[in-house]
C-alpha cells in the first residue's frame, strides 16, 4: 500500500490546508508590517515614548510590552483562525477551545517575557555602544539561540504536553540499541501525549548531555510499526551524528549578524530622516522590527534550501543505519497522510516554504538506496 503513495483524498485536503495556511500567514505578516508602519509614520511611536517618562530601561520594557500587547489584540482573530479553526476543520486538532486558549496564554506569556528581556538587552547595547552594538547584539543572540535550542525541549515542552517513560520495553530496548549502534548517547525513551490535542505524529531527540532523551508521540506509537519507528529515530540520530544543531546555530548566528548590521545602517539613516533622538531611541523600535522581518523573509529561501540539504543527509543516514528502505517508504507515506503534508508541492512552493524535501524526492532516495543495495 505504501508503494501506491499517499491517499489522494488526503492529498486534496493537504493542498487546500497548505494554501489556506499560507494565506493566513501572509495576512498575519501584513498586519505586523502595517501595525509597525502606523506606529512609525503617524507619530504614535514617538508619542508613546514621550508618554513614558521613565529611565531608559523601564521605558524600553514598558514601550515594548504596550506595543506587543496592542499587536496581540489586533492579530488575535487571524491567529485564532489559523491556529484553531483551520486545524479543526481539517482534522488535525482535537483540542477544546479552552485547552487551546490556555496553551496560547502560556505560550504568549512565555514569549513575551523572553522577548522583553531580549529587547531590553539590545537597547542597553544600543545606548552603551551606539557604534558597535550590532556586533555585541549578534553575539548575545547567538548565546540565546544555543541556550534555547538545548534547554527549550526539556524545560518548555513539558508545559504543553505530558511526558512519561515509554511502557513498551521491547521497543525501548530496540531504540536504545539503535542509539548505541549509531554512536548516539541517549538516557532513556519517553512518550509524549499528543492525542488529547492533535492527530499529528512526531518524534525527536531532545536535551543535551545527560538530559538527552528520545521522545515519541503516542499518535506515532499507536499507528506505526517498530520498524517504521526505528527508521524515524535513525533519521533523528543522523541529525545528531552530523552535528546539525551546531551547524544550524552557526547559520542562524550569521543571519543575526547580517540582520543587526542591516538594522544598524537603517537606524543610522532613520534617526535624522524621521526626527528621532538617537539609534537607542525606543521610538525607532518599528524600524528595527521591520528591517529584521524583511531580511528574514528575503533569506528564507536560502535557509530552507540549507535545511532541505540537512534533511536529505539525515534520510541517507537513516537508510544506511537500518538498511530498511521498505520501512522508510511506508513510514514516510503514513506520516505524509497523517500530518496532511503536500506530497508534490509546486517548485516555487518548495523553494519558498519547504524546510524538508518533498515526499516524492524522499521516495526517490529510498528507491535509489534499494537499487544500490541489490
Architecture overview:
With 374 residues, this protein is mainly α. It has helices at 8-41, 44-51, 56-89, 97-128, 133-155, 169-181, 218-223, 226-241, 244-274, 285-322, 325-338, 347-353, 359-373; strands spanning 163-165, 189-192, 203-206, 213-217. Strands 1-2-4-3 form a 4-stranded mixed beta sheet. Helix 3 (56-89) runs antiparallel to helix 4, helix 5 (133-155) packs across helix 9 (244-274) and helix 6 runs parallel beside helix 8. The longest helix is centred in the C-terminal third of the chain and has 38 residues, at 285-322. The two termini are 22 Å apart. The model has no long low-confidence stretch (mean pLDDT 92).
Brief characterization of the structure:
By secondary structure, the protein is mainly alpha-helical. 72% of the residues lie in helices and 4% in strands. It is built from 13 helices and 4 strands.
- Low-pLDDT stretches are none
Oligomer: single chain
Spatial strand arrangement across the major sheet: 1-2-4-3
Cα radius of gyration in angstroms:
23 Å
**What sort of overall outline do the alpha carbons produce when their principal axes are compared?**
elongated
Biggest β-sheet strands, sense, barrel: 4 strands, mixed
The residue fraction in helices comes out at: over 70%
- SSE string: HHHHHEHEEEHHHHHHH
Q: Please, how many helices?
A: 13
Strand content: under 5%
Overall pLDDT metric: 92
* Backbone structural class: mainly alpha
Distance between the termini: 22 Å
Number of strands: 4
Amino acid at each position: 500500500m505504501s508503494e501506491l503513495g499517499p491517499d489522494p483524498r488526503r492529498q486534496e485536503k493537504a493542498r487546500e490546508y497548505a494554501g489556506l495556511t499560507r494565506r493566513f500567514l501572509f495576512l498575519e505578516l501584513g498586519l505586523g508590517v502595517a501595525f509597525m508602519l502606523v506606529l512609525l509614520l503617524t507619530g504614535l511611536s514617538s508619542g508613546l515614548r514621550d508618554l513614558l517618562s521613565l529611565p531608559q530601561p523601564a521605558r524600553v520594557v514598558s514601550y515594548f510590552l504596550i506595543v506587543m500587547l496592542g499587536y496581540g489584540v489586533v492579530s488575535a482573530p487571524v491567529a485564532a483562525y489559523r491556529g484553531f479553526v483551520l486545524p479543526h476543520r481539517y482534522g488535525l486538532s482535537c483540542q477544546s477551545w479552552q485547552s487551546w486558549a490556555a496553551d496560547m496564554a502560556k505560550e504568549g506569556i512565555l514569549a513575551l517575557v523572553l522577548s522583553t528581556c531580549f529587547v531590553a538587552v539590545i537597547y542597553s547595547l544600543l545606548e552603551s555602544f551606539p557604534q558597535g552594538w550590532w556586533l555585541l547584539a549578534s553575539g548575545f543572540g547567538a548565546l540565546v539561540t544555543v541556550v534555547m535550542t538545548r534547554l527549550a525541549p526539556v524545560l518548555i515542552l513539558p508545559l504543553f504536553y505530558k511526558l512519561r517513560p515509554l511502557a513498551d520495553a521491547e521497543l525501548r530496548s530496540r531504540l536504545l540499541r539503535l542509539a548505541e549502534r549509531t554512536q548516539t548517547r541517549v538516557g532513556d525513551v519517553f512518550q509524549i501525549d499528543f492525542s488529547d490535542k492533535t492527530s499529528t505524529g512526531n518524534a525527536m531527540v531532545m536535551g543535551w548531555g545527560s538530559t538527552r532523551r528520545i521522545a515519541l508521540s503516542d499518535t506515532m506509537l499507536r499507528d506505526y510499526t517498530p520498524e517504521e519507528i526505528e527508521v524515524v529515530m535513525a533519521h533523528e540520530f543522523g541529525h545528531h551524528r552530523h552535528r546539525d544543531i551546531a551547524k544550524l546555530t552557526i547559520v542562524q548566528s550569521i543571519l543575526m549578524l547580517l540582520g543587526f548590521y542591516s538594522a544598524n545602517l537603517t537606524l543610522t539613516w532613520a534617526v535624522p530622516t524621521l526626527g528621532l533622538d538617537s539609534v537607542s531611541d525606543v521610538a525607532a523600535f518599528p524600524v528595527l522590527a521591520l528591517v529584521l522581518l524583511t531580511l528574514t523573509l528575503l533569506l528564507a529561501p536560502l535557509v530552507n534550501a540549507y535545511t532541505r540539504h540537512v534533511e536529505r543527509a539525515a534520510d541517507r543516514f537513516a537508510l544506511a543505519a537500518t538498511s530498511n528502505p521498505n520501512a522508510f517508504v511506508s513510514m514516510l507515506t503514513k506520516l505524509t497522510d497523517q500530518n496532511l503534508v503536500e506530497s508534490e508541492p509546486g517548485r516555487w512552493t518548495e523553494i519558498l516554504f519547504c524546510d524538508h524535501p518533498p515526499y516524492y524526492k524522499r521516495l526517490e532516495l529510498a528507491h535509489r538506496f534499494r537499487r544500490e543495495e541489490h
